[in-house]
Specification:
mainly alpha; 2 strands
């Protein structure tokens, strides 16, 4: 099957055909040329924009070198920024390419990685071509202050501006003239070439056709390629290898036309000059990354949201977790079953004074809880002190009573107030 599928390189029809057939052949040749020319140009510029990361898998104890895990974390942050600002996928892939090429040429410290990633993203937003062919919306260039706040990169907008100048100087490239060749660039070109090669060999109205919705299939492939691009294990392969491996995995699910898709992939592999061993290794890595992503997507999300607050904001907040009370709940009641009986004492003047003062605050006493044995009584005012009698007014046979009794005496015999 592979020997029968060759990239058309010119008119090969029989002579003496009608004018309509010749015109159709010329249109096909023009379409083939439109697909082949940008693909060959991208393959020519591919080595120029190919990063070569030599980062350790895990950071050392001294913490003076960026690891693969740190790079992967920054790539995921760039993807979140792309989703937050609703930008095209070209912005994300260009930003990752700029960041990887800068890390290839320069040895940076981990504390500068977040600033490098945000600066690469801002450069990508500035120089990525517009996407009017996708929707009628102008290109969005976020503000550096918003980027530093949303990404939490712990750097200022001035630091981002200075890092952008350093990146442009070290990469020695003009992003205005030519955008970098990324895996997304070759995925679109190879996807269109695969559709052109497989169209004559697939039934036109077959339900098992691999391309029932070309735009929807390409969108799914781009989404998967973003997941693959966030891992540093895939950054060591060529963009053409990543695109072909993803196409092989996607079209390999069509078992009814497996031979057709396999022949088309093999022909594109020969055009891109991709070796068999490197292609199989890349296909294995991409398959493992996609399996890992599918397993994480079906598992419950357990990441906890962490709010990062400044000390000033933290001082102004009043957390309520420490205000919980441990007191038991008091059951509400309509009122006491039997209100306490208070008897007046007539034998002493101080008791009469107390009763007169307590009668004025009767409404206040009724507000207390009657669950207690006796309601609490208010403290007498200082002006209600009992006047002292002179020795001439006191009877020698009368009992000596205290000057003032703050509370009524309790008769233990009858368990009542005296």
């Amino acid at each position: 099957m592979a020997s029968n599928i060759l990239w058309p390189c010119g008119g090969g029809g029989g002579g003496g055909g009608s004018g309509g057939v010749q015109q159709q052949q010329q249109q096909q040749q023009q379409q083939q040329q439109d697909l082949l020319t940008p693909l060959l140009e991208a393959l020519t510029l591919e080595p120029k924009y190919q990063p070569s990361l030599a980062l350790p898998q895990v950071a050392k104890q001294d913490g003076g070198e960026i690891s693969m895990r740190m790079r992967n974390g920054s790539a995921h942050v760039l993807r979140c920024l792309k989703v937050w600002y609703d930008l095209p996928p070209d912005t994300f892939f260009n930003a990752v390419n700029i960041m990887d090429r800068f890390l290839t040429r320069m040895k940076a410290q981990p504390k500068h990685l977040s600033c490098i990633a945000v600066s690469a993203f801002h450069l990508s937003c500035q120089f990525t071509p517009g996407y009017a062919h996708l929707r009628e919306v102008a290109q969005v260039v976020p503000d550096t202050r918003d980027l530093t706040t949303i990404s939490q990169c712990k750097c200022s907008s001035g630091d981002v501006t200075r890092m952008e100048r350093i990146i442009l100087d070290k990469l020695d490239t003009d992003l205005r003239c030519q955008p970098p060749v990324t895996p997304l660039t070759l995925l679109r070109l190879l996807y269109a070439a695969h559709g052109h090669l497989s169209a004559p060999l697939l039934p036109p109205h077959s339900p098992a056709s691999a391309l029932p919705h070309p735009q929807g299939t390409l969108t799914t492939l781009i989404h998967k390629l973003e997941i693959v691009g966030c891992d540093a294990a895939a950054a060591t392969f060529r963009p053409a290898e990543l695109a072909l491996a993803l196409l092989a995995l996607e079209f390999g699910q069509d078992t009814a036309h497996h031979n057709v898709h396999q022949a088309c992939i093999a022909h594109l592999q020969a055009i891109c000059k991709v070796g068999y061993e490197s292609f199989e290794q890349c296909r294995k890595v991409v398959g493992e990354l996609m399996d890992q992503y599918e397993n994480q997507r079906h598992s419950p999300h357990r990441q906890r949201l962490v709010w990062k607050l400044s000390n000033r904001t933290l001082r102004q907040l009043r957390p309520t977790d420490k205000f919980t009370t441990r007191l038991p709940t008091i059951a509400e009641r309509q009122g006491p079953a039997r209100p306490p009986i208070i008897r007046r004492r007539m034998d002493s003047e101080c008791s009469e004074m107390y009763v007169s003062s307590s009668s004025s605050s009767e409404e206040e006493e009724m507000e207390y809880d009657y669950d207690e044995e006796f309601p609490p009584l208010p403290t007498p005012a200082a002006s209600l002190k009992s006047p002292r009698r002179s020795p001439s007014q006191q009877s020698p046979h009368s009992k000596k009573s205290p000057a003032f009794l703050p509370y009524p005496q309790l008769n233990r015999k009858h368990n009542r107030l005296a």
